[in-house]
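Batch manifest, entry 17 of 40.
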Amino acid sequence: MASMNLQDRLPPRATVRSAIHLSMLEGLIQQKLETVARTGCQAVVLGSSDWPQTSNELDRLKDLLWSFRLEVAALETIPEDPAKAPSMAHPPSRETFLQRLTAALELARQLEATGVCLAAGPQLPDVPLEQQQAQLVDTLRLCLEAASASATRLLLKPQAWPGYPPPLLRTAVEAASILDRLAHPSLKLWFDCYVEQTQSGNVTSALRQTAPYLELVEVAGVPDRCEPWDGELYYPNLYRTLGELGFRGTVVWNYRPRSPATRSLVRAIDEMRAALASSPSTPGS
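Output type: structure tokens
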């Protein structure tokens, strides 16, 4: 069964795809996928801790995805401690970074994943920011060359973490300014609403400014990364903004549920679908 084409076996994809980040769920991989399937969600995002480590694990994951009719929206390449990730602005780290990307692209090919996450990593001390940005652009060009034979899109993701050193890209607007320099159709934006709110505080404006690059929008309550209806952000308005912008990508939930995960996620998905249905340019869900 693992050799079957997953996409050919799935129902037609909705215009806005719903996905769940597996890192937010407890249990083994089969238990996590069972939970996702119960919510009616269409796809998953695999964090680095959920990557299969052997060919047998890979075949089993393919079988499970097929049996639950789930797509893989994206693969995370960020370590569990993102502050320890290599900086894409550090030329000596490029070989290590590109090796990791090559492995991610091969896994994406095997799982027919839509996207692979790229994180710029931390700033370099004592290096001018303009120089770091230029080096980041050079590294991204190498990433695009590495992915040139792949149908997988590369998704640049801003980051936030406490302490020093600060991340090189903190907001979606900063990331979009880098994407402007490359203007490549296979390089898009992973927009994390939680990060955007904690770093800039104007999520709606950032969605509008970065609309041409939006591919994946990550959802969590702020500031506790809990349910999206608890916290500073009013997500129905953000979903309606996505509808107005004609968003055609993936919304992924990645939070720590305070109630049973299935019940919490069903409510989160229903909330998004209701908001999209009420937006002036409803793209569907």
